[in-house]
Amino acid sequence: AAGHAAEIALTVFTRDLAEGTLTVSEGSFKVKGAPGATGFAKLPIVLELGEGRYLTAVGVQDLGSGEASFVTTMLDSRAGG
Description:
By secondary structure, this protein is mainly β. It is 0% helix and 57% strand. The protein is built from no helices and 4 strands. It has a 4-stranded antiparallel β-sheet with strand order 2-1-3-4, with no helix packed on it. The relative contact order is 0.31.
């Protein structure tokens, strides 16, 4: 059976807790797999963040079905990685 490709949209919101600035990073991906397959996919996105603490929200949406998932977390960015 031929495989299919899911179209995935990824959006990352980061708010600098010290300055209050909001950054939005977006990416779109085609993930190939067999019909009915489940599992994981790597969706790389680059965040351009300075040193500091950030409130981060990540949204992932399957553009075909409209299903979406969201998660929020704190992120510490320090000089030198």
